[in-house]
Amino acid sequence: MALEVLEALDSARTQWYHVTAIVIAGMGFFTDAYDLFCISTVSKLLGRLYYFDPSTGKPGKLPPTINNIVTGVALVGTLTGQLFFGYLGDKLGRKKVYGVTLILMVACAICSGLSFGSSAKSVIGTLCFFRFWLGFGIGGDYPLSATIMSEYANKRTRGAFIAAVFAMQGVGIIFAGFVSMLFSAIFRSYYKAPIFSKDAVLSTQPEGDLLWRLVLMIGAVPAAMTYYWRMKMPETGRYTAIIEGNAKQAAADMARVLDIEIIAEQDKLTEFKAANDYPLWSSEFFSRHGRHLIGTMSCWFLLDIAFYSQNLTQKDIFPAMGLIDRDSAMNAIDEVFQTSRAMFIIALFGTFPGYWFTVFFIEKIGRFKIQLVGFFMMSFFMFVIGVKYEYLKNDNKNLFALLYGLTFFFANFGPNSTTFVLPAELFPTRVRSTCHALSAAAGKAGAMVGAFGIQYYTLNNDQRNIKRAMMILAVTNLLGFFCTFLVTETKGRSLEEISGEDGRESELTATPNDRVSGTHQDSRTEKM
């Protein structure tokens, strides 16, 4: 029962509009990653500026609860935004809400840097308020970008295109490190200060208050640059046809971007919609797709516990790896520079390659195998770090840095990419955005476990606690390995075939009655 407009999308050759869609959606993820991860480069500076206590004899540091809120509040907003905009993406249309998320991101990135007041309470309070809403906008980008890209792409390269959109997250993380490093290097050259051990007060340059604000506000620039092009994109053909029921408009829109003639087939569309008219919260949905939904949600939840724990706590791990000096041997802006440089190096050589390995190999190896291997290797490397932490820290810092970088590589050439791709492919069109949102929100719930839980183990650089954190993350990744068996391979198949919307249902999408009667096998035979 395949519609001509859908077959045209599935069989289309790769052309300029595919590249345009990747860039437009990808710049959103570039901004998302920058905004979520740049806070790690300046959080220690916030501690020195607003929480210095001379009686401790140590540089100022954000209290554990405040640190976790500052770094984690955007994740709470992201989770909320994913659910809100994911639902609206199915109800109102992908395009209609796509621009709203970008406006929120631009406005709140600027406002984060303008956090007002001079006391710790007022500055941190307003910063957290705006970062929550920043995360809310970022959250909407997850289901909308993935869904739009999956519905535009052809079936031969769909996984690579969706992964390429997500790979811009790696570029955003690199850019967060680079911008922080560049600005801190400029500030450091103009505003020199003694290290903390020589002068506890003068080691914190007051100009650092401008530095962290500039770093946060830069996140508004790439988002603002793509707004016009997002608004120029037509609604996806699948949404217009299958959800709005407008075969003529879908055929016209897709004929324009594909530069071919497409027949509308309104009568066939009516039959198509009638055969797939069951709601999300129904027994039929769960019999067909419940296993997949549990699989995508659990894998993303477990992955993000480890992935965000790594990214948000790396500033605490860097001293142990020898990538930055002790805090007492640096002034405030020096600490930003060295933390940013270390983050940039790890991202460039560990994080970034993994994303693009996924782009290049996902259609050859498949999503399922990449996710399995990624989870297993992450678990292995974290287990080694946890068991041999003292040796790696004291006697072999180069090996420590290599192992730590490899965990990032296999996270991105692994589940961090595939958990984004699979929910955009496995579910029916009318609930695709919502199901992706549910999966992504489960991931952000895992990220919050990392931000509000695992970070407690690393804040004070206690060896036993860091070892414990690494062992916990190793077990978490191993659980993700086993949960991967709840999903199925999707490469080379159309979205309608994967979800069973075209009647060609697999063992995982057929209803129990179909399995007993064998009707799903009959439908396959008829089409052959």
Architecture blueprint of SSEs:
Layout: H1 4-11, H2 16-37, H3 39-50, H4 64-91, H5 94-113, H6 120-152, H7 158-190, H8 208-217, H9 220-232, H10 237-243, H11 247-258, H12 266-274, H13 283-321, H14 332-365, H15 367-387, H16 389-395, H17 397-412, H18 415-421, H19 432-458, H20 463-483, H21 495-499, H22 512-517, H23 519-527
Helix pairs in contact: 1-11, 2-6, 2-7, 2-9, 3-8, 3-14, 4-5, 4-6, 4-19, 5-6, 5-8, 5-9, 6-7, 6-19, 7-8, 7-14, 7-18, 10-11, 13-17, 13-18, 13-19, 13-20, 14-15, 14-17, 15-17, 15-18, 15-20, 16-17, 19-20
Organism: Vicia faba
Transmembrane segments: 21-46, 66-85, 97-116, 122-140, 161-190, 210-229, 342-362, 368-387, 399-417, 437-457, 469-487
GO molecular function, one term: symporter activity
Describe the structure.
With 528 residues, this protein is mostly helical. 76% of the residues lie in helices and 0% in strands. The chain is built from 23 helices and no strands. The protein has helices at 4-11, 16-37, 39-50, 64-91, 94-113, 120-152, 158-190, 208-217, 220-232, 237-243, 247-258, 266-274, 283-321, 332-365, 367-387, 389-395, 397-412, 415-421, 432-458, 463-483, 495-499, 512-517, 519-527. It is globular. The chain starts with a helix and ends with a helix. Belongs to the major facilitator superfamily. Phosphate:H(+) symporter (TC 2.A.1.9) family. It is found in: Membrane. It is a multi-pass membrane protein. The chain crosses the membrane at residues 21-46, 66-85, 97-116, 122-140, 161-190, 210-229, 342-362, 368-387, 399-417, 437-457, 469-487.
